[in-house]
Amino acid sequence: MEQTQRPADEAVEAQEPVTEAAEVQSEPEEKSGRADKKKLKKAEAQIAELEKQLEESKAELAAEKDKYMRMIAEYDNYRRRTAKEKDGIYADAYADALKGILPILDNLERAVGVGEAEALQKGLAMTLKGAEDALAKMGVTAFGEKGETFDPEKHNAVMHIEDEQYSEGEITEVYQKGYAKGDKILRFAMVIVAN
Questions:
Q1: How far is CA 133 from CA 61, 141, 149, 163, in A?
Q2: pLDDT in the model for residue 172
Q3: Same domain, 47 and 114
């Protein structure tokens, strides 16, 4: 019987050390469980902070996008408005120029109906004066008169002649007057120049 009891006793003894080992193992598990909980709480806090930063960044991005879209819309409106104003200014200037030329057309129509040569000549002279006045009102000046000195910036020499009665570079004849508006040349004068 003793032999039978021994294995049972040994089994009891064998169980006791296992229990002690389990107790010893449960202490580190508890410590590691607490450490894991601390890490988990810390990670959750970091995630919450990052989510908060993400929401702030999204709000800032939305504000900047709204600001950008408003700027684009304002620029588009500005571009349309200035294009419309430019077209309006151009149309007004064009209309003003044509109004100045219409009396010339009226005078030429009247001149066609005149039968007398002297009256026709007088009418054409008045029409020419009206045209010159209309151009002067628009700020257009004529140049390229006989006796002026040749200027390649304003004159187009179609021919050169050698004549001692004219000085070198003097315009001897004008085929077509030149016109300028301020500093801008509208048409070069076609002239003959002495060498």
A1: 63, 10, 25, 36
A2: 94
A3: yes
Residue 44: predicted pLDDT:
94
Domain that holds residue 127: 37-138
Residues 151 and 116 in one domain: no
Entry pTM: 0.53
- Tokens found for residue 173: 């004849």
Are 144 and 59 within one domain?
no
Task: Please tell me whether residues 161 and 92 are part of one structural domain.
Answer: no
Residues 139-186: tens digit of each pLDDT: 899 999 999 999 999 999 999 999 889 999 999 999 999 999 989 999
Q: What is the DSSP letter of 149?
A: B
pLDDT < 70 regions, the chain: 1-30
Angle at the Cα of 70 (from 66 to 73), degrees rounded to 5?
140
Question: How far is CA 33 from each of CA 23, 25, 27, 41, 49, rounded to the nearest angstrom?
Answer: 15, 12, 10, 12, 24
164-173's contacts with Cβ under 8 Å and 24+ in sequence apart are 166/194, 167/194, 168/194, 168/195, 169/193, 169/194, 170/194, 171/144, 171/145, 171/146, 171/147, 172/146, 173/146
> Is 30 a domain residue?
no
Per-residue model confidence (pLDDT) at position 177: 92
User: Tokens 């109004």 appear where?
Assistant: 99
Residues 73 and 99 in one domain: yes
50 shares its domain with 89: yes
